[in-house]
């Protein structure tokens, strides 16, 4: 997972490198563009394949999609706020 500050700086540097390196004549910015583009390409290729599960649903069954591990879902923050409002 990328650090937000690094991702923002890398995006800025890649834009500047594309402008000054590819379209301009700066070999330093061209080298930065090659490095950042190569890093992004390798990162995308090295990422694990997404998990795909296919099952046929019968009538009456439901599908629940979460990003939590099974049984590890946290409390619903909206429901807890409602409870606090009702108690006060």
Write the layout of secondary structure elements.
Elements: H1 4-23, H2 27-46, H3 77-87
Would you mind describing this structure in some detail?
Helix 1 (4-23) crosses helix 2 (27-46). The longest helix has 20 residues, at 4-23. The protein has one domain. The chain is mainly alpha-helical and 88 residues long. Helix content is 58%, strand content 0%.
In short:
By secondary structure, this protein is mostly helical.
- Count structural domains: 1
Which class of secondary structure composition applies to the elements?
mainly alpha
Please work out how many helical segments DSSP would assign.
Answer: 3
Report the span from N to C terminus: 41 Å
Mean pLDDT score: 80
- The total strand number stands at 0
Q: Give the SSE string.
A: HHH
- Taken as a percent bin, the fraction of beta residues is under 5%
Question: Outline, from the CA principal axes?
Answer: elongated
Report the radius of gyration as a whole number of Å. 23 Å
Give the helix level as a range of percent.
Answer: 55-70%
Q: Which stretches are poorly predicted, pLDDT < 50 over at least 5 residues?
A: none
Report the major sheet.
none
Could you list some keywords that capture this structure?
elongated, mainly alpha, 88 residues
